Amino acid sequence: MRIDILSLFPQMFDGPLHESMIGNAVENKVIDVGVTNFRDYTTDKHNHVDDYPYGGGAGMLLQPQPIFDALADIEAKHATKGRVILLDPAGYQFNQSVAEDFAKEDHLTFICGHYEGYDERIRSLVTDEVSLGDYVLTGGELGAMVMIDATVRLIPGVLGNAESAPGDSFSSGLLEYPQYTRPADFRGLKVPDILLSGDHGKIDDWRLQQALKRTYERRPDMLAKLQLSGKARQMLADIKADADEL
């Protein structure tokens, strides 16, 4: 996968793109990442990339020319600018399903805004307008880092264990079940006996029950979207009955 990032602050990506999982993916050539300072493309003699909005109003807007020309250069170098993602609080909300969709692409380009917003004409170049959540950041860089991290870890060959991503919270539609490692008894806090039993069928059932319980307690809204098996529906009914007795 090729990932391009347009930002006024490219140094912000130095750490996240060269450490941990993403750093390994870059080093192993699983992904190819380029960060472009679109200020380098401005034709303004003072190097400005923003200006006041027509009609008045607070703040400054990013001008179209630097971003149009930066995207044109990416397209000239790579024969495509790929799927172009505008980081915008007014966009649809990013989630695991969106990350899975992005992970299927060969080329993603993220536009990180700053200041008050964008000249509306920039949106004519965009395929997706995406928000990290219902809050406002000073720029799109942190949002792009989160989206890239969530996306790249789903690409085959990035995670050490191919089964890790499908078992994550949200990938299955449920929050992840509790997990434990050694020692089995840490200062009186013990690992559940079932996990030490070696009975993988019972372990799978326990994990499903715990995932359902955790989701019901913390994110019941997620359950409404799921098509549960008969076994899972019965487990959930038992969980609800136990909660009602408390």
From TrEMBL:
Major site of localization recorded for this protein? cytoplasm
- What general EC class does the enzyme of this chain belong to? transferase
Per the UniProt entry, what is one GO biological process? methylation
Matching InterPro entries, A to Z? Alpha/beta_knot_MTases, tRNA_m1G_MeTrfase_C_sf, tRNA_m1G_MeTrfase_TrmD, tRNA_m1G_MTases_N, tRNA_MeTrfase_TRMD/TRM10
GO MF term (any one): tRNA (guanine(37)-N1)-methyltransferase activity
Q: Is-annotated flag, keyword Cell membrane?
A: no
Cite the entry's keywords alphabetically.
Cytoplasm, Methyltransferase, S-adenosyl-L-methionine, Transferase, tRNA processing
Question: What is the catalytic activity of this protein?
Answer: guanosine(37) in tRNA + S-adenosyl-L-methionine = N(1)-methylguanosine(37) in tRNA + S-adenosyl-L-homocysteine + H(+)
Q: Where is the tRNA methyltransferase TRMD/TRM10-type domain?
A: 1-224
Is Methyltransferase one of the keywords?
A: yes
Residues noted as binding S-adenosyl-L-methionine in the record, renumbered to the chain: G113, L132, G133, D134, Y135, V136, L137
Gene3D superfamilies found in the cross-reference section? 3.40.1280.10, tRNA(m1g37)methyltransferase, domain 2 (1.10.1270.20)
Enzyme Commission code? 2.1.1.228
The protein's location, in the record's own words, is: Cytoplasm
| Family membership | Belongs to the RNA methyltransferase TrmD family.
Which PANTHER family does this entry report, sorted A to Z? TRNA (GUANINE-N(1)-)-METHYLTRANSFERASE
The record's subunit annotation is: Homodimer.
Relate the protein's function as given in its record: Specifically methylates guanosine-37 in various tRNAs.
- What name does UniProt use for this protein? tRNA (guanine-N(1)-)-methyltransferase
What gene makes this protein?
trmD
